[in-house]
Amino acid sequence: MDTELKNAIETAQRECKDPYAQTYLNSIPQAIKEYGDRGFGVQLLYCLNNMQTWRGEIARETKKVFKKWAKTLS
Q1: pTM for the full predicted model
Q2: What's the gap between Cα 16 and its chain centre?
Q3: Cα atoms in the Cβ-side hemisphere of radius 13 Å centred on 17
Q4: In terms of CB atoms within 10 Å, which of 18, 42, 44, 73 comes out highest?
């Protein structure tokens, strides 16, 4: 996994308070195991969908990384 993406996931796990986003973040390893890169990309989209209320500079930068990688992996 790319360092940029790994850091973004760790930041979201630490900073984003949405419980549904946290569920999807914590399920990323399982999605990768079961579905590979495509599953990983879809999981990032699920995370993004549930991070809509997360605001601020950290949130913007993290979401930007998620969007980039979701597009790359899907």
Answers
A1: 0.91
A2: 11
A3: 4
A4: 44
